[in-house]
């Protein structure tokens, strides 16, 4: 939602400007990272000055401070694109990731089609982008999509990784 995007942008800008902040961890709520954008918002008129996903992901990527995604539940569509913009990704063993928007005739629109191949290679990325399939965390680790898979508290593991880097 626009509220989530604006909060993410504001939080990132505050963290980057605060010298006491050494790293940033992004997580979802209620055991889910993000199921992506609400497609109903695609047809509503854009308001000037509202947050857009692509520029926010670029803001994450450009952060001079390490940004770690704590992926629980699902990271799908725009949610996976947010995780791709992070410098590191920790996933719970039961998490699933993917870019399912192709199944309704859409391509990932926040540069996931560029970031995913850079991270895991073109053949694996093409499979994920064109099929829309959800991949489990263990496969994501093998592909290099995530840096760590944990069975414990994902947020705590992501904070440990952030402190380490």
TrEMBL record:
CDD domains: crotonase-like (cd06558)
GO biological process, one term: fatty acid beta-oxidation
One MF term in the entry's GO annotations: delta(3)-delta(2)-enoyl-CoA isomerase activity
Entry keyword annotation includes Glycoprotein: no
Iron-sulfur among keywords: no
Keywords, in A-Z order: Isomerase, Lyase, Multifunctional enzyme
PANTHER family linked to this entry: 3-HYDROXYACYL-COA DEHYROGENASE, PEROXISOMAL BIFUNCTIONAL ENZYME
Similarity comment: Belongs to the enoyl-CoA hydratase/isomerase family. In the C-terminal section; belongs to the 3-hydroxyacyl-CoA dehydrogenase family.
Protein name: Peroxisomal bifunctional enzyme
Organism taxonomic ancestry: Eukaryota, Metazoa, Chordata, Craniata, Vertebrata
